[in-house]
């Protein structure tokens, strides 16, 4: 019971922190991550909020991931995208709605803070071993179906989102490259810390 409660806390706190980090990278206005830029582009082209597009795209990916991997849809991943989408809207439309950054250095600090927050959030939520974010599930589905390495699968999924974001005029820029280069090492760094924290609390 203690183990499950602890995993649920790591899962929920992790997703809230991820949503905060994503919101910071968008507000930095230097270029968002490929999938986030896609969601912003969809918002600007068709309306609805960024969080709603996170949910819609996530739902489509849950179905497509199941078809690609020839497995049952990960229905529990719906919980992940619902929480993530709603919390992103909370930050973008509420707490961070009127926040603006006037200089490049302010924007850069916010961008880097967002990357760190996303990495911490991902490291925490991964410890729960609950359902993956459908974007991560897309990567895993390609790896399972076609035997790609996870690195190639991740590159393909990011390229897919990047093309969509470019077509829709999403915020692709310098920050997109920084996120692409920096997010992996940052997650790796914090993952070991999150594992240690989880094991310490369980013991």
Automatic annotation (TrEMBL):
InterPro entries: YczE/YyaS-like. This is Permease. It comes from Halobacillus halophilus (strain ATCC 35676 / DSM 2266 / JCM 20832 / KCTC 3685 / LMG 17431 / NBRC 102448 / NCIMB 2269) (Sporosarcina halophila). Keywords: Membrane, Transmembrane, Transmembrane helix. Pfam families: DUF6198. The chain crosses the membrane at residues 9-26, 46-68, 75-96, 108-126, 146-166, 172-190. PANTHER family: INTEGRAL MEMBRANE PROTEIN, INTEGRAL MEMBRANE PROTEIN-RELATED.
């Amino acid at each position: 019971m203690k183990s499950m409660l602890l995993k649920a806390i790591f899962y929920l706190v992790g997703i809230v922190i991820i949503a905060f980090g994503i919101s910071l990278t968008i507000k930095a206005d230097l270029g968002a991550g490929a999938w986030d830029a896609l969601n912003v582009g969809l918002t600007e082209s068709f309306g609805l909020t960024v969080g709603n597009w996170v949910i819609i795209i996530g739902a489509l990916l849950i179905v497509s991931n199941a078809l690609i991997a020839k497995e049952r849809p990960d229905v529990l991943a719906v919980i992940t995208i619902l929480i993530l989408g709603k919390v992103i809207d909370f930050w973008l439309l509420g707490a961070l709605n009127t926040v603006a950054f006037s200089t490049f250095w302010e924007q850069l600090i916010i961008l880097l803070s967002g990357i760190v927050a996303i990495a911490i959030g991902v490291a925490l939520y991964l410890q729960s071993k609950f359902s993956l974010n459908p974007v991560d599930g897309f990567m895993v589905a390609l790896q399972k179906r076609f035997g790609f390495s996870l690195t190639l699968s991740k590159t393909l999924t990011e390229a897919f989102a990047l093309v969509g974001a470019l077509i829709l005029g999403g915020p692709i820029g310098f920050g997109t490259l920084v996120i692409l280069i920096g997010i992996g090492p940052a997650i790796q760094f914090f993952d070991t810390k999150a594992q240690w924290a989880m094991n310490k609390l369980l013991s």
